[in-house]
Amino acid sequence: MRLIILGGPGAGKGTQAQKLCQQLNIPLIGTGDILRQAIIAQTELGQQAQPFVEKGELVPDPTMIEFIRARLLLADAAAGWLLDGYPRTAFQAEELDFLLDDLGQRLNWAIWLEVPEPVLMSRSLARKRPDDQPEIVQRRIDLFYQCTIPIMEYYERRNRLLKINATQPLEKVQQELLEKLHS
Ligand code: AMP
User: What are residue 164's DSSP bridge partners?
Assistant: First the structure.
């Protein structure tokens, strides 16, 4: 199964992504974590990405798509994968479709963990991390909507958006997700 996961800060994306990958036996490709590790290891990707990641800016598209292409061609991705953090823009969503066409692969679903904005806010504040103050959280939520709504619309138009009510308890979300993926 080939999947993308989308959800705001506090939507439970990390937990759901990990569980789903275990259940489906597919690799979790989280671009943020991969880039951070590449920077520590100072690989070629890391060196290219570093100045952007350090400023919280998007790494240029050619670097990202080249990385995704190489990653999807690794043996462990042959039977499927779950992308977290890519695509980040509607342009990247389109580039991914071109790449998948080229590789002869097809995306099954873009999963949208739907949580109303006030719940995203209260869950994020409950984590009490240093960067979880109300103004900062609000900014992250605003940016998330700004970037992600066009991606959602992109997949909705192509009937590939799978919406899940993620205000429910984690186990319930997991169960509903698996049911919908297999139906
Ligand atoms: P994250 O942990 O998902 O917030 O990602 C950390 C950083 O990695 C971001 O601030 C970007 O600099 C970079 N990054 C992650 N995914 C992408 C992407 N799809 N396109 C461009 N840059 C990305």
Answer: 113
Q: Is the CB of 85 under 6 A from ligand 1?
A: yes
Count of the separate structural domains present in the chain: 1
> What is the best residue among 58, 67, 124, 143 to mutate for testing ligand 1's pocket, by most ligand atoms within 8 Å of CB?
58
Q: What is the CATH number of the domain that holds 140?
A: 3.40.50.300
Domain of residue 79 covers 2-174
In DSSP terms, 162 is beta-bridged to 111
Domain contains 126: yes
Give the containing element (helix H, strand E) for 70.
helix 61-72
Does some domain include residue 181? Answer: no
What tens digit of pLDDT does each residue of 19-48 get? Answer: 999 999 999 999 999 999 999 999 999 999
Within a domain: residue 56?
Answer: yes
Nearest protein Cα to ligand 1, atom 5:
32
Residue stretches of the chain with pLDDT short of 50: none
Angle (CA) 29-91-107 rounded to 5° is 45
> pTM for the whole thing?
0.93
CA–CA distance, 28 with 80 (Å, rounded to integer): 10
